[in-house]
Specification:
The structure is a homodimer. By secondary structure, chain A is α+β, with helices and mostly antiparallel strands. In chain A, strands 8, 9, 10, 11, 12, 13, 14, 15, 16 and 17 form a ten-stranded mixed sheet that branches. A six-stranded antiparallel sheet of chain A has the order 2-1-7-6-4-5. In chain A, strand 1 and strand 2 form a beta hairpin. At the A-B interface, strand 3, helix 1, strand 6 and helix 5 of A face strand 3, helix 1, strand 6 and helix 5 of B.
């Protein structure tokens, strides 16, 4: 169950308070237009994993939307609030809205002060058993906007997709384009394994440049597993050997069934499990408990 | 200039207060996911124009997103807050969010209480001179999601489009699909006139079922101007006689230039002006000042 928001420590525009107490004007553009950028970070042993990658992506996204936030200051706040939370195994939610202004579609002039939210909560694994035994997914039509490379809070298509998966008793929904190619999940990146090679969609406007996706590319190079950036077509699902999803909270999640198609032999595959192990090794190396 | 939000009367979940004082939890799903529906109504002589159409659309949209709000109660509040505002020429903004819950993509269980915002502000005409002399538009690629029939606050593509138009010194941006067909504006419906007939895109998932769009269909029938629901292609812009945009605040706005293409003879056309006149007649008939 989600934690009580009274017990979650937030930082709202530089001031720490319980998450349940953070209130924003309804003229905030995140509320009125979804005009905001976010990140979710995983903390292992008190250390945010791949922090710089998240900050770099945040910086790029803020630039794309011309939201003038100071990422260095956000990083300092995040560090302080994580320390003050006292949590070691945690997730950090970071949200930067364009700020408050009278409602007009076009960007307000002068630019308002961005509203900056950070909160730190105990990590709750969304897929503890599925990561071992494999999860199951459905395919859904990709109805999202065409700038999914921007990690904005215009997430209604993702919400509806995740709800559809949940209602079907599945773990995730995978977006399929009109040409039948598989893009990514509602909050995960998608990978397949075929004949010993890893396949994943190339980056582009329809794909979030996932931090864990980037890590998989790095891990493939390190373990000398060939990796090819090409799209997987839905018709190929019966032919591939393995399928897995990745994400900051998801880590590496084997998928053993998609709609009514069993993937490979219906069990988590060898390369997926190898990547899970390497993932743990990298986490251990980069997030050593402070003594 | 936008009005000072201190002076704007709001109704927040049934309680009236200055708009500037309305605060919402950052766990509200409109803030986190754009998980909310909205309407904008125009008030003439103290009477909301085409109220029932707006309430019907609101009801349909809430059903599409499974947000359990009581539209009858919202209508009562809207009426009371309009009366208490003392305004005759006004616009009403109505926003229903799914409500507050710990952040997960899928719909929270149990369903939270929706957060319901209404505010009433003096009407400020966005296009006073353009409605007489004609406005100018640009064409932009339609990067919106594929459920634009739902009037949600996932509006970032509309925001970016409106900003692009504004930066180009134009009045509106018109979305163009990949096949070159023109859909609608960032906050307006689109109509063309060719050989004495009005053309507009048929309703579908890529199009908002505009209240003013519906009114144009009604006015065309009343004035016996033929109206055909078919898509306009960008290549046809040089051949058409007139072009206009419609919307609740926009009313009927002649467009005399699109990108560098002059429409017709570069002046508001006869049928557009006829529709503007009929629009005023209908408003006068339906929104008679209370004496």
């Amino acid at each position: 169950m989600p934690q009580n928001s009274d017990a979650i420590l937030a930082n709202w525009n530089g001031v720490e308070m319980p998450l349940a107490d953070v209130r924003v004007s309804v003229l905030d553009r995140s509320f009125l237009f979804g005009d905001a950028i976010y990140e979710v970070l995983r903390v292992y042993s008190g250390i945010p994993f791949r922090l710089q990658d998240h900050l770099d992506r945040l910086t790029r996204n803020l630039e794309k939307l011309k939201i003038p936030a100071d990422v260095g200051r956000l990083a300092e706040r995040m560090d302080a609030t994580l320390q003050n939370s006292g949590l070691d195994e945690a997730s950090i939610y970071l949200h930067v809205s364009r700020g408050e202004a009278p409602r007009t579609h076009r960007l307000p002039v002068p630019a308002p002060r961005p509203n900056e939210l950070i909160y730190v909560q105990p990590f709750r694994d969304p897929y503890p058993t599925q990561r071992i035994h494999g999860g199951r997914a459905i395919l859904i039509r990709d109805i999202r906007w065409k700038r999914c490379d921007i990690k904005s809070v215009n997430l209604l298509a993702n919400v509806l997709g995740a709800e559809e998966a949940h209602a079907a008793g599945r773990d995730e929904a995978i977006f399929v384009e009109e040409d039948g190619s598989l893009v990514e999940g509602t909050h995960t990146s998608l990978f397949a394994v075929r004949d010993g090679s890893i396949l994943t969609s190339p980056l582009g406007p329809q794909l979030l440049p996932g931090i864990t996706r980037k890590l998989i590319l790095e891990m493939a190079a390190r373990t000398q597993i060939p990796l090819v950036e090409e799209r997987l077509h839905r018709d190929q699902l019966g032919e591939i050997d393995e399928l897995f999803l990745t994400g900051t909270s998801t880590e590496v999640l084997p998928i053993v069934e998609v709609d009514d198609i069993s993937i490979g032999d219906g069990k988590p595959g060898a390369i997926t499990q190898r990547l899970q192990a390497v993932y743990r090794e990298i986490v251990s190396a980069e997030c050593r408990p402070k003594s």
